[in-house]
């Protein structure tokens, strides 16, 4: 096993979402509504929901509880016992009205050494989210977002714990305690999801997660997640800045958070800063801000150079593989026409050209079953899929199409349910498409560099 850290934090204690104001605070942080100078929409990626997290949660309440509330109200003889709006009703109770889970793979030190692999975490967190929804069906996800703008990429998931089976009151209600049981916290959140995350992390990042340590993370319901422990931005201070002992840092952070809000709020914060800081501190802030902007420009230049180097590498990769395009075409035609693939002569123990090519891309699923997701995929109504073949004794001489599998969720589909969509125009990831994409990307880089020069 590797030594890359994995953590899954569930909101609890001070971080518990027990009121509408706390839900608004989570929405403001997760979707960067305060628009700090470090904010970039390219680094805040939504996987579920919209840019209005508060409304996303309300929508889940309506979808899950409206029918149960209507049935409950019909049984009530007294008007004062009826519930008009279940969202407002729960908001006035002393309980969790929503739950937030934060997933993180790798600490600050790891990502400082693997900056070029950060973007791969989109695939890891997207797969982890879909797996969590499958393993915890009673946790209805309202909003999920990935943060790439901090030292370690991580994912915030906000949802509603829905429990059925109450003997009194509503037959269906919000209940964190009944959904996030000790078993689900330990077995699912820390064991099964850790295992699934490790598999996807290894496939995408080519590194292994560390094993779960004994005696650690045994009770996530009372563990406070310390994302800011190894990052420069200190997320916990961003959520609860009024509790920090560092008054100077809090004032500067508050100033940044309200810069883009309305003029009345901006004047109020400026007045507060003016009362709390001297002229020397204001001057110090201005110098610090200019330094930060200079570092941003330097980082921007570095990212552009890395992007151009990546394009160059991709072009060299395509040039190397273009001579193999007939073999790729032969493989794709066999899949689209449901033909068996004859890859060699088992009697002589020889592989033909296609067989040798497939062996280089083959990935074993279970004994006798394999697929080639890196070679060719098809876009379908089920998502991006790749064919699954039977391979007698794993010798690679003959392949027979058995099913299709989603490259992200790993869900399998029968041939009959999806074969009509496996055709030429639905191919993705071909060398021709990559080459066209690189040409377009190079043109975009040239135009954006011209625009950047004019703006400066």
UniProtKB/TrEMBL annotation:
Residues 220-314 form a coiled coil. GO terms for molecular function: DNA binding. Signal peptide: none annotated. Pfam families: Mob_Pre. Keywords: Coiled coil. The keyword Coiled coil applies. One of its GO terms (biological process) is DNA recombination. Transmembrane segments: none annotated. Belongs to the plasmid mobilization pre family. This is Plasmid recombination protein. It comes from Variimorphobacter saccharofermentans.
């Amino acid at each position: 096993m590797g030594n890359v850290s994995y953590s899954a934090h569930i909101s609890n204690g001070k971080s518990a979402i027990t009121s509408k104001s706390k839900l608004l605070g989570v929405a403001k942080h997760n979707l960067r509504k305060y628009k700090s100078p470090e904010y970039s929409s390219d680094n805040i990626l939504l996987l579920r929901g919209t840019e209005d997290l508060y409304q996303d949660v309300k929508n889940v309440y309506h979808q899950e509880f409206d029918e149960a509330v209507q049935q409950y109200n019909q049984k009530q003889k007294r008007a004062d016992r009826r519930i008009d709006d279940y969202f407002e009703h729960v908001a006035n109770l002393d309980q969790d009205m929503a739950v937030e889970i934060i997933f993180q793979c790798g600490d600050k030190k790891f990502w400082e050494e693997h900056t070029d692999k950060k973007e791969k975490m989109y695939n890891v967190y997207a797969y982890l989210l879909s797996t969590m929804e499958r393993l915890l069906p009673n946790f209805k996800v309202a909003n999920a977002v990935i943060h790439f703008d901090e030292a370690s990429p991580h994912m915030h998931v906000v949802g509603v714990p829905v429990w059925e089976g109450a003997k009194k009151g509503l037959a269906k209600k919000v209940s964190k305690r009944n959904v996030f049981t000790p078993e689900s916290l330990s077995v699912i959140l820390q064991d099964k999801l850790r295992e699934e995350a490790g598999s996807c992390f290894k496939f995408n990042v080519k590194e292994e997660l560390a094993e779960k340590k004994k005696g650690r993370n045994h009770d996530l319901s009372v563990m406070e997640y310390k994302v800011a422990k190894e990052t420069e931005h200190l997320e916990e201070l961003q959520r609860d800045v009024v509790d920090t002992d560092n008054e100077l840092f809090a004032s500067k952070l508050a100033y940044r958070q309200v810069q883009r809000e309305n003029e009345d709020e901006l004047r109020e914060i400026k007045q507060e800063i003016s009362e709390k800081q001297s002229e020397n501190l204001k001057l110090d802030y201005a110098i610090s801000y200019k330094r930060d902007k200079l570092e941003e420009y330097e980082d921007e230049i570095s990212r552009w150079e890395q992007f151009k180097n990546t394009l160059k590498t991709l072009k060299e990769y395509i040039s190397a593989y273009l001579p193999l395009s007939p073999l790729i075409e032969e493989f794709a035609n066999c899949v689209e026409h449901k033909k068996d693939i004859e890859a060699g002569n088992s009697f002589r123990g020889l592989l033909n050209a296609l067989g040798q090519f497939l062996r280089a891309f083959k990935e074993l699923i279970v004994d006798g079953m394999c697929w080639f997701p890196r070679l060719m995929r098809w876009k379908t109504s089920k998502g991006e899929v790749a064919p699954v073949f039977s391979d007698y004794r794993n010798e690679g001489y003959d392949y027979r199409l058995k099913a299709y599998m989603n490259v992200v969720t790993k869900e399998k589909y029968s041939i009959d349910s999806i074969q009509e969509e496996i055709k030429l125009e639905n191919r993705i990831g071909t060398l021709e498409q990559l080459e066209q994409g690189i040409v377009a990307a190079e043109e975009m880089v040239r135009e954006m560099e011209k625009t950047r020069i004019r703006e400066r």
